[in-house]
# Entry
Amino acid sequence: MDFGHFARHAEHEWVIEPAGAMRVPAIIYADQDLIAAMDEKVFEQITNVATLPGIVKASYAMPDAHWGYGFPIGGVAAFDADRGGVVSAGGVGFDVSCGVRLLHTGLNRAEIERAKAELADALFAQIPAGVGSTGKITLDDSAMDAMLAGGAAWAVAEGWGEAADLDRIEERGCMAGAAPAHVSPKAKKRQRREMGTLGSGNHYLEVQEVVEIRAPEIAAAFGLKLGDAVVSIHCGSRGLGHQIGTEYLREMAIAASEFGIALPDRELACAPIESDVGQRYLGAMRAAINCALANRQILTHLTRDVFAALFPAARLSLLFDVSHNTCKVEEHSIDGARKRLYVHRKGATRAFGPGHPDLPEPLKPVGQPVLIGGSMGTHSFVLAGTAESETLAFSSACHGAGRAMSRRKAAKQWRGRTVIDELAERGILIRSPSYRGVAEEAPHAYKDVGAVVDAADRTGLARTVAKLAPVVCIKG
# Structure
């Protein structure tokens, strides 16, 4: 990254002032090493986003930002419908509502160790993973629409989970405004047998140990203590979300020119929020959010079954579930007034601070859990949203380590079997249907997640609470 593009406003804040067609500044939150390692395309993409109609305050990039489709992954931008604001399928991404949920087990690392191999094998047998993976659930047309409208609440009503889970899920487990009618038959067909599956890429189910507490009072409120075993589930809306992104990006590319929107990059395809295509996309995207929430809920139920068989004392209660590929309508302050904005987060996690009305009562005093997944074999982190995050980036934080190299390059550099063996020597058991998938997700194919989290913490985007180490990883 060329530092000549930026003015350094603070230790971890780099600003590109408006120039040319930019309507607002572009801001990257990162330390000097992280920003120096970013692809030049991040600079190009955040400045392109800053040209879109109705954007307010700034176009943001998180510390884990890297090149994406149109928007950078790690990008945040908010649009005002009253100022001709747009919605962009590229600003959400193809894996709509990909996110992370974290479960307590009520067990400690020593208890897990006594049956670690059996646990790894049982989870791998129970949790379908990999490209095109399908599960035991088949949805007919009626059940598909009910799932797309109901999300995790639908899953609980169908017997996959507990009513208590819903209070600890973003949107209480059901995204309002979902419109299954605006999801194509092809998208629904792709999802018909994919509920309760992890998929491939960077998705995983991981048993982890809490190895460090950095904010004891928040950790206590989150129910986390040293030595605890927890379960992290990272996945999204599978084939349905990808199909929705593909179809609406194509339609928005045509619509943008019809609405007189000059796109600096065709991948920034968008449409006015109030337009027909904009409203149809929002309805379909919200249905995909519900698909992802339902999917993670079903995976939770399957995981609970495995733990119940091996560890009768286990109690897999949900800490929180939050997405990092969405467009949400939220109220934020603009020029001293509260405004309803369409906040796009692509590879960025919502991070509401203490007292936010959308948080469940037990979490309001300390803020929303922000769940940051590491790469396979590296640490993950639990953070908490801060009050200052709203003014910094519409209450947003990073979402993971961020890739340092392409999957193709990683597959050429590492062999999956070797990665699995090396991690086993460190006490980390990997189960995956694909050696190539493991090679593509090798730990060194990603940035240093610790540096990313430290940058988010020091900036004030979120506060670091706990550090987690992998024990067992089920990988797509």
